[in-house]
Amino acid sequence: MVLIDTHAHLEEIKDLDEALSKARSVEVVAVITMGSDYRSSLWAIRNCGEHVSGLRVYPALGVHPWSAGSLNTEEMNALLELMHENVENFVAVGEVGLDYWYKEVRRDPGKRGAQKAIFKEMLRVAVEYGKPVSVHSRGAWRDCLNIVAESGVESAIFHWFSGSLEVLKEIIDRGYLISATPAAAYSREHRLAIESTPLENIVLETDSPVTYRGETAEPAHVTRTLRAVAQIKGLDEASVEDRTTKNARNIFRI
User: Fold this and answer.
1) Tens digit of each residue's pLDDT (9 = 90 or more) over 26-61
2) Other CB atoms closer than 10 Å to residue 3's CB: what's the count?
3) Can you give the CATH number for the domain in which 156 is found?
4) Most buried of 23, 47, 52, 234, CB within 10 angstroms?
């Protein structure tokens, strides 16, 4: 097997060396670590490269919607400069997007507007540099798709998608991808999305170190994602591994 964890937040993992060694032991050869703000994006750039023999960490740079309200102008400018200086090094713009899951965001036009403004700026950068985008769309699936489509972004992964099948169909029709997580083992909405998406439009991830049913995820758990997707699709794990790894290599150009 050759597996790629296409979405993690490695700067948040306490014992990173151990976690990556465990991942390599189950044939993980690459991890894409996502930026959430300037500091985590800088960490991603500084810590990319080979960590364990045969396992490389690739950086994605961006502003998570949760950080949209706290990112000041100085930090935003620093992030844009970091992207400009490392255009050959980072493989995606992410994690970026919108999150309407919280009532205060849904009810406050100002907070939604702040998220949209930064999201659009990140998409502008993605178009300028020809980078794929990792999209956080929780509770904002329709708005995220519309904004991504209007931006002219050619390659996008809708991270941990669990929205409506109507939006999902448009994502697939536009040639975008979704990512499967370990939640595919139990989340009804996430499982339905995976079931309804061609394997050619799916990549695997863990979103480490998020917690799934009381257990902290790590990159090695991408094997659990693989197992769940194979079960949902009624396919053998080798077939799912082969196709999803090719998808990841193609979109991130790694």
Assistant:
1) 999 999 999 999 999 999 999 999 999 999 999 999
2) 23
3) 3.20.20.140
4) 23
**What integer pLDDT is reported at residue 103 of this predicted model?**
79
Residues 6+ apart with CB under 8 A from 43: 11, 35
Tens of pLDDT, residue by residue over 161-184, are 999 999 999 999 999 999 999 999
- Predicted pLDDT at 219: 98
Q: How far apart are CA 121 and CA 70, in angstroms?
A: 16
Q: Please provide the DSSP assignment of the chain as one string.
A: --EEEEEE-GGG-TTHHHHHHHHHHTTEEEEEEPPSSHHHHHHHHHT-EEEETTEEEEEEE---GGGTTT--HHHHHHHHHHHHHTTTT--EEEEEE----SHHHHH-HHHHHHHHHHHHHHHHHHHHHT--EEEE-TT-HHHHHHHHHHHT-S-EEETT--S-HHHHHHHHHTT-EEEE-GGGGT-HHHHHHHHTS-GGGEEE---TT-EETTEE--GGGHHHHHHHHHHHHT--HHHHHHHHHHHHHHHHT-
Q: How much is the mean pLDDT over the chain? A: 96
**Contact status, residue 96 vs residue 122, Cβ threshold 8 Å:** yes
Predicted TM-score of the model (pTM): 0.96
Q: Is the dihedral of CA 49, 181, 11, 23 positive or negative?
A: negative
Tally of domains in the chain: 1
* Residue in the block written with tokens 């060694």: 21
Question: Domain residues for 102?
Answer: 3-252
| Cross-strand partners of 156 | 133
Query: Average of pLDDT values for 185-198?
Result: 98
Tell me if 122 sits within 8 A of 84, measured CB to CB. Answer: no
Q: What is residue 70's predicted lDDT score, i.e. its pLDDT?
A: 83
